Amino acid sequence: MDELAIEVKDLSFRYRQTTHAALSHVSFSVPKGSFFCIIGGNGVGKSTLCNTFVGLIPHYFLGKMDGEVRVNGQSILDQSIADLSSQIGLVFQNPFNQLSYTASTVAEELAYGLGNRGVAREEMVKKVAAVAKLMRIDQVLDQNPLDLSGGQAQRVAFGSTFILEPKILVLDECTTQLDPMGADDIFAIVKRLNHEGITVVMVDHDMERVAEYADQILVLAAGSPVLQGTPAEVFGDPRLAEFGVEPPAYATVTQALAQRHLIKAELGVTKEQAVALVKEGLNHAH
Amino acid sequence: MGSGEPVKSPIEKLNPLTKMLAIFCLGLATLIYPNSWLGLGIVIVLFGVAGIAHILTSFAKTIFGFGIPISLMLFFIQGLYSPKNKTIIADLGFAKLGEEGLLYAAKIVITLLVFLATFYIMNQTTYAGKMVAALTRSGINPQVGYLILASLNVVPQMHRRLDIIKEAQEARGVETTGGLWARLKAYVPLMGPVVMSSLTDAQERGMTLETRGFANTNVKRTSYIEVTTSKADTYLRAGLIIFLVAVIIISIWMRWAQ
Amino acid sequence: MNVDKKRSLSRSVKVQSATKSLVLIPIAVGINLIGGTLCSTLKLPLFLDMIGTIVIAVLSGPWVAALCGLLTNLFLALVANPVYLPYALVSVLCGLVTGYLIKAGLFRNKFGVVVTWLVVTLTNTVSASLITIFVYGGATGVNSTSLVTAALLATTKKIMFSVFSSSMVENLIDKAIVFVIAYLIIQRIPKKFLSQYSSSLGDD
Is residue B93 left, alpha or beta, with left meaning phi > 0 and alpha meaning psi from -120 to 50? Predict the structure, then answer.
């Protein structure tokens, strides 16, 4: 059995003073080192779930939680958010809400979490330099983070999270506010980190991206998991539209071609797969 | 606060705590001393300090801009109407000018000027981040440090947001002129979007602080900003304390001798 | 840590995170100062510098509101004029009074808001006048109130009365506008946001 990075057992959560549960009876697990995607329509509880992984639920948001969430084998109830930050890091949508507002340079911003841990200055300087290089923000270390572009600021947010050396990264629509190039820059880094063994849990609306990266996909609808599997399994499921998810264009196209027997009956969810299938089909036709 | 420009004067290089001690010692000494002369001397010396720090022009503007109106106002109020007035210097017809009131007003003005001047110099020559780093090292609550720095960052950001909305409104033809009620009706709704978005942002910023370990307990916080205590700092601190003690002793002696 | 210990699987969190209130403070200070900027833009002889304090009093209670008042004056002293520093005491008192009155449930209806307005105006007038008299000897010279004080003084010749009455009139108008704006803002805060604070407006 694979070791588990995250293990969710019968998790339910209802925000204070609300009548509907944001999450109800959610169970699934994320193996270590995998790239795990969570998809679904708006307001189905994806962000709530992400906040649970890092302990913001139940330690920050008020509400009623049932069930269990384990990160690297330990329950989030037994750890503070600060404790969890060395295991799991969260990056979310708005880069300017992921600044500490205590720093007047990017370098200070990156070092902020280390300062809260009492890391000595010499070590801080080394780690800041390394992370800045990884995130390609070493040119802006002396700038005020509030003056950066969205893409740069989001890389600072990434760096500030990653400098705490988590083994799991949770990305909650972390590129939605960025231009396509800024998003690609970030994903190039994410992909590299995943190859180096970091577990990635990603919520994203870009299904092409999800199809390209995901090992496993979980589909949420109204706070409950409705579907789980590999990209080919999930995007080939006929019920997908019911759950408010539109499969990547490649999947729709290859599905239509396969139905007319122009290509073999296989689902191409990524560009590469679709292109290969079409080429093969064309060769057959000749 | 100053933005930490690379041009470094000796005043800028001092440890922020030394400058805070200076505000305390010089202000308190002026307050305790029985008349205004010591305070006047300190203000003159501070003009020299402002010169060393290359901020003389703005310093002079601030001191006179504050000092002249408040002096006129207080000399008028206290000089003419203070119940302490016994020695009458001049009779203006509608009221009499009293010496005691004038001296009292002079003491208030000079004390305020010393606090203002020292505070202004510290403010202009100290990078806020460095001050908080120095305070953090001496063990203040991290929440206090957060409040100082975050206020300095958040407030201008909110003003920028307001300006953007204001420009948009003006482009749409909303007038800034007209009656009081019309002006209020045009501008109060501007605050709505800024306030609402700022409040919802606050919740996410709190999430960020938490996931960066802000709520960590029992950890001595460290900072990326280097804070040093030089020999100049040590001598200056000792000097300031000796000065304050000396002023206290002389003041007691002067009052006792009267 | 004993991971295997028997623990209830259901956990209901009622304690408000301190960080959640803390991050509101700089924003409330910003709202206070925006009110002040608005006044100078519109050339109003008012302050309107308590809107954020009232909003935060509703969300996080009297002591956080008091801290917000203190910081507002510190900030004004820092960037505008050090004259504002001693009046920090006034802002602290107003924050506390507003906070405790709201906690007592006075913000749930319009009548309660009027009562809060009057009490806060009185608190502000008395404490501000005392500071003007004891710290500044009667006038600060920074605003039009000082001129009113001087004019009254010339006719009535009583420092205490002059300072007090000129401050009272200004305050009644200022706080009336402040409370109306704050009340409107609070009505519009989304319920989902409000429910995350131990607010005194709703029930559990």
Answer: left
Residue C10 lies in a domain: no
Assess C155–A contact: CB distance below 8 Å, yes or no.
no
C-alpha to C-alpha distance for A153 and A149, rounded to whole angstroms: 6
Map residue B119 onto helix, strand or coil.
helix
Total residues found in chain C within this entry: 204
Residue B159 predicted with pLDDT over 70: yes
Show the domains of chain A with their CATH numbers. Answer: 1-87+167-244 (3.40.50.300), 99-165 (no CATH), 248-286 (no CATH)
- C17·A15 Cβ contact <8 A: no
Find the domain containing C77 and state its range: 18-194
Give me the CATH number covering residue C43: 1.10.1760.20
Give the percent of chain C with pLDDT over 70: 75
In this structure, is residue C136 part of a structural domain? yes
Among A93-102, A178-187, B4-13, name the one with the lowest average pLDDT: B4-13
Structural domain contains residue C2: no
Q: What is the pLDDT of residues A118-148, one digit of tens each?
A: 999 999 999 999 999 999 999 999 999 999 9
Q: What is the DSSP letter of C198?
A: -
What is the DSSP secondary structure assignment for residue B224, as one 8-state letter? S
Could you report the per-residue pLDDT of C145-194, keeping only the tens digit for each?
A: 666 666 666 655 566 677 777 778 888 989 998 999 898 888 888 888 88
- Total domains present in chain C: 1
Task: Tell whether B164 is within 8 A of chain C (Cβ).
Answer: no
- Identify the three-state secondary structure at position A45: coil
**Best interface-test mutation with C: which of A17, A57, A71 has the largest number of C CBs within 10 A?**
A17
